[in-house]
Amino acid sequence: MIRSLGNEPPLLADGRRAPDKREVSLRWLSGTFLTGITSSVLMGVALFAALDGRQQLAIPAEAFASVNTHEDSAVTRGGRLIAPAIAARPSDRAIMEVSTVVHDGDKEIVRRQPFSHVKMRLAANHVATEDYPDFDALAIFAADEAQPAPAARTGAIYGSDVESEVSLKTVPFPTGKSDFQAAPGMTLDEVEENVRSNGSALTDGATQVAALYYVDPQRFSNEDNDVDLTSGLSARVLEQNMTVSAPESITPQTEEFADDIVPARQDVTIVKALMDSGYPEPQAKMLSANLAPPLGSDDLAKGDVLRVGIIQKGEQAKLIRASVYRGTRHLVTIALDDNSRFVEASEPPMLDAIATAFDDNSLSVPAGQNLPRIYDGIYRAALSYGMTKDMTALIIKLLAANVDFQAQLRPTDFLEAFFSVTDSSGRATPNSELLYVNARFGDTVTRFYRFQDADGNVDYFDQDGKSIRQFLLRNPVPNGIFKSGFGMRRHPILGFARMHTGVDWAAPRGTPIIATGNGTVEKAGWDSGGYGNQTIVRHANGYESSYNHQSAIAKGIVPGAKVRQGQVIGWVGTTGESTGPHLHYEMIVNGTKVDPLRIRLPGGKSLAGEALAKFQDERKRIDTLLNNQPVDQVASK
């Protein structure tokens, strides 16, 4: 080994001496140092490029995994104490050139116009470009947004692309004189030969016909003096076997019927389920004893629904019927007969409250996270993506019936919007119009489209052509706090169990109360039955709403007065049999008091006929532009 490695001293030339091992080469040290710095810089640049310029390692899936879905939160080993931020991506915004058609007198002008399509993750760290108004629930529900001019600035989406502006004009079909020389008429022999030769092609299924379709002259004309094929045709509906009687006045001794829905969230006995819902023990045991034999058990399984029919007269509540459902499938019903004994009975008419008995989304408490409120999240995201405050306020108002704006955002909440702009910057102007919104908050999806009818009225409708505006609101005190629900409970003053036929919303004395829908005031004044200052509003289709314990009734709210949805009709108080300032709100449908939070309310107006067909064409064009998929779930509240 010594021989192979060599043990002779190195050969030196030009007077150079052998290096001293105790010395350090300055060139070697500086070269090593520069190499290390260069390597670190190159690795940093490569990592930054791989992350696409983002400084946060959190992605929406990680943020969703960090949501604590349990009530008792605890930090585990390795868990993050601060929720990771969600970064917005540039790909969430796109500017499109879309052909639109606008009616200008007797002409239709087709032009290309820029539109902005944004998909906003509301939980991202958006920075609002300008100040926005503080949350005011009363202003959201009561204020009416400004309606655009009858001639919409944006118009409707055109079905084809155009290179430049095109002007189209429709003129009546010339049914009178023509510039072309008319051909001579056919002889009878020619007509017969034509029918025989073409008759084989004119078939209706297996039946051969020999007739041609006529052309309606009105189809090609807009003159009022043209031929009207429908003149002289009319229809009148005559009602038979109908008797109109005066409405019966309601007194404290008037019998009132109500259905109480008791969902079983776990395996439980009928007695315990009823007692937990506020029924006295004797009534619970009596109902269980009569219900158990036909049911085959005195227990309710998880997911069962117990429906109890009650007649209340004054201070007395009488149980007259009980039904058990497994999900929405009816199992058994018992009811009182003429001898006041419970016997098996037929299934009562189905209620929507049965299917939604376990739907508590409206009262669920969001998990604690370091995220803003939904109201702030919508404004911050919308303003940062170039929308105006007026356009954002319109979105807030349209979503108000289905979204709790004071709840905290979830990492999966998002808002998609499609609106007109003026240039490639993608920023809206006061003349911009909102055409489409798709919002997801938790498991609730709300999607609506803008549509202008033949009269120039503009509104927003869901995919089926139903107005997004609710027929009735569920909460007449937007700033109130939910305190007591619908069902049997122990009366705080009288000291015994009775049916609570409404919902209580607590708020400071003097808090405004708004009308939950358009209607006519039926009663406004003092009620001797314990309701104090009471206002009853009659709505369309048999719906009524009752507002009780008011400190005062608004000026002009008198029987026969018309009110609109969102109008202030009174103020919260504690008049009548009340232990503190709150509003006792009741909803009555066809004379029966129902749960305002669970009943499935009808929507607003619905499009029909030619208007619905035009809306469906407009909706399909927008869905095609945005590559929309069918909605799996829509808002039901």
Tell me about this structure.
The protein has helices at residues 2-5, 26-50, 60-65, 137-142, 188-198, 270-276, 281-295, 352-355, 374-384, 389-399, 609-626; strands spanning 93-104, 107-121, 156-157, 166-169, 203-204, 207-208, 256-263, 268-269, 299-300, 304-313, 316-326, 329-336, 342-344, 414-420, 434-441, 444-452, 458-461, 481-484, 487-490, 497-500, 503-506, 512-514, 519-527, 532-538, 543-553, 562-563, 568-572, 582-589, 592-594. By secondary structure, the protein is α+β, with helices and mostly antiparallel strands. Among the domains are: 85-159 and 363-445 and 618-628, no CATH class; 266-302 and 304-357, Nuclear Transport Factor 2, Chain: A (Roll), CATH 3.10.450; 481-594, Glucose Permease (Domain IIA). The strands form six sheets. Strands 18, 21, 22, 23, 24, 25, 26, 27, 28 and 29 form a ten-stranded antiparallel sheet that branches. Strands 1, 2, 3, 4, 14, 15, 16 and 17 form an eight-stranded antiparallel sheet that branches. One of its GO terms (molecular function) is metalloendopeptidase activity. Its cofactor is Zn(2+).
Question: Can you lay out the helices and strands and say which pair or pack?
Answer:
Blueprint: H1 2-5, H2 26-50, H3 60-65, E1 93-104, E2 107-121, H4 137-142, E3 156-157, E4 166-169, H5 188-198, E5 203-204, E6 207-208, E7 256-263, E8 268-269, H6 270-276, H7 281-295, E9 299-300, E10 304-313, E11 316-326, E12 329-336, E13 342-344, H8 352-355, H9 374-384, H10 389-399, E14 414-420, E15 434-441, E16 444-452, E17 458-461, E18 481-484, E19 487-490, E20 497-500, E21 503-506, E22 512-514, E23 519-527, E24 532-538, E25 543-553, E26 562-563, E27 568-572, E28 582-589, E29 592-594, H11 609-626
Helix pairs in contact: 6-7, 9-10
